[in-house]
Amino acid sequence: MKTMLRQIAGIPVGLIFLLAMIPTVVTHHILVVAKCPRNVDKLITDVYAILEAMTDNAWFPTPSPTLASVKTKNDDLKDAQVAAKSKAPGGVQARNAKKAIIIKAVYALRDYCQSICDANPELAETIALSALFHVKKVAIKQKRTFQVKQLNSGSVELSSGVLGNQRAHEWCMSLSPDDPGSWYAAIIPATIKAMTVVENLKPGTKVYFRHRIITKDGPSDWDQTISLIVV
């Protein structure tokens, strides 16, 4: 009976409890969406608007493809649309071919915008909207724990038990957690491993720590803040 209480399906009850306590944290990745309307006139107007929004936009220093090349393709589609409306022989087929070309160019600009957003995840939505693209927030669920443990006098170990793939770990500490700027006053180097040691802390000081992971989709939200009085 005791064995049954201590183990469930071969897993210690205590371990099951610990696993149940691991929080699920939901982060969001911004996906840039290009909506190309089926109506050709609307498509032409929308492309010109995107080009105008990206021109001299500091977020897009080297668009690929170039804005000039996309404008040329859109001008070609505009001319082809005029011919199609005049019912010129082969006009519709030529217009449709030009439409396919401009849609491909818009998708290429979207991919370029996505690369900029991925490099600046905290501002990704603002960046995408500044180019008049649409955005979709993709939820990413990851389970992890964040722990703070006292080591020798003035030394603290920070660790994170992460379930999932990550590229790096970011750590922060503060003496005044309500002051946003205080979190960056003392820099703790980012690490590849899910553990780091902070040394030379003043005994008797109450210090606040937090942690987040960096994945291929950008940074997660910060873990819940943990405080500790240094001994």
Q: How would a crystallographer describe the biggest sheet?
A: 5 strands, antiparallel
Task: Quickly count the domains.
Answer: 2
Shape: rod-shaped
Order of helices and strands: HEEHEHHHHEEEEEEEE
- The average pLDDT value, as a whole number, equals 84
Question: What is the number of beta strands?
Answer: 11
How large is the count of helical segments?
6
Measured between the Cα atoms of the first and last residue, the distance is 43 Å
Which structural class do you get from the secondary structure elements? alpha+beta
Q: What fraction of residues sit in β-strands?
A: 25-35%
Fraction of residues in H or I helices: 25-40%
- Show unreliable segments: 1-22
Radius of gyration: 27 Å
Which terms summarize this structure?
single chain, 231 residues, alpha+beta, 11 strands, 31% strand
Would you kindly provide a written description of the structure presented here, covering whatever features stand out?
This protein folds into 2 domains: 108 residues; 86 residues, Immunoglobulin-like. The chain is 36% helix and 31% strand. It is built from 6 helices and 11 strands. The strands form 3 sheets. Strands 6, 7, 9, 10 and 11 form a 5-stranded antiparallel β-sheet that branches. A 4-stranded antiparallel β-sheet has the order 3-4-5-8. The chain is rod-shaped. The two termini are 43 Å apart. The N terminus is likely disordered.
